[in-house]
Amino acid sequence: MEIEEKQPRSISEIVSIVEALIFVADEPITVKTLADVLEEDREIIEAAVEELKLEYVEREGGLQIREIAGGWQIATKTEYHEKVRRFLKTRPNAKLSLASLETLAVIAYKQPVTIPEILEIRGTQSTSAIKTLLEKRLIVMKGHKETVGRPMLYGTSKDFLIQFGLKDLTELPSIEDFEDLVQ
Predict the structure, then answer these.
(1) Deepest of 82, 135, 137, 140, by most Cβ within 10 A of its Cβ?
(2) What are the C-alpha distances in Å from 112 to residues 15, 19, 107, 119, 135?
(3) Which of 153, 156, 159 is nearest to 118 (CA)?
(4) Are 97 and 129 in contact (CB under 8 A)?
(5) Is the pTM of this model over 0.70?
(6) Contact partners, residue 111, CB within 8 Å, separation at least 6
(7) 44-53, 129-138, 148-157, 166-175 — which one is most confidently predicted on average?
(8) CB atoms within 10 A of CB 48
(9) pLDDT in tens, 50-92
(10) Which one-letter DSSP state was computed for residue 138?
């Protein structure tokens, strides 16, 4: 039985992979983790990080590779922090409670939908979740239902599509697939 030899990677390929990993990491990623994932020597990874830092400096863009808390992260340059902070203050905070997520799922799949219809599906009151979703601009009012009392109809917004990376509502997983995910 032949043992398959690993083809050596070029430094430019290693730099590219390191950049991708730093970008997707939720928190600063250490050289040790990068070396373990890439199955490369620490020295090669350190050289790749230095090369990547240099590329970002030479490019003179708005981003930099920074060492933070013992790991590496892609960050905005400090001279742009005030502009970035101002922009981020205009965006709604994305964290949602379980009740808000459940309510959002009902609205996404059943829209346009009224609060009583959401209550019937969820089995619990959703008014505070509706308020939160409206504040975060994930849902919008879609008019009134043509029935007694003319209750307000709700549906998802463009911000909902952006937040969840959807081209349109046809990209939502089927309800069956969604149910499989939560079981």
Answers:
(1) 140
(2) 48, 42, 7, 14, 18
(3) 153
(4) yes
(5) no
(6) 142, 153, 154, 155, 156
(7) 44-53
(8) 25
(9) 999 999 999 999 999 988 888 899 988 889 988 888 887 776 5
(10) S
Which token pair is 20?
């991708």
Residue 183 one-letter amino acid: Q
Is 16 within 8 Å of 9 (Cβ atoms)?
no
- 160/143 Cα distance (integer angstroms): 18
Q: Measured between alpha carbons, how far is residue 50 from residues 19, 30, 32, 59, 109 in Å?
A: 11, 13, 15, 14, 47
> How far is Cα of residue 4 from the mean position of the Cα atoms in its chain?
38
Give CA angle at 170 (175, 150), nearest 5°: 75
